[in-house]
Specification:
Blueprint lengths: L3 H7 L14 H13 L4 H12 L13 H12 L1
Helix pairs in contact: 2-4
Length: 79
């Protein structure tokens, strides 16, 4: 059995967590489906966008999958 400090250490994140507010659930679900279709995730896409936005060396806009592709993935996941 672990004590409280050990439990906290196990659940610490490697990086500081950043939160975005004011994003509705539908947008989050659509974004997640599109990111999965692009073989990425929310954090990876967001980081790439931020790096591109501030003109980091070598940063590029992430490629967007076709909407029909990620909508299909989303529908398959719901069934």
């Amino acid at each position: 059995m672990t004590n409280g400090e050990e439990r906290r250490r196990q659940h610490r994140h490697r990086h500081k967590q950043r939160a975005l507010r004011g994003i509705d659930d539908e947008l989050v679900n659509d974004f997640d489906a599109a990111a999965r279709t692009a073989s990425s995730d929310r954090s990876g896409i967001t980081k790439a966008l931020w790096e591109w936005y501030v003109r980091r060396d070598g940063a590029e806009l992430p490629k967007r999958p076709d909407e029909s592709d990620w909508r299909k993935v989303q529908q398959e996941e719901q069934t």
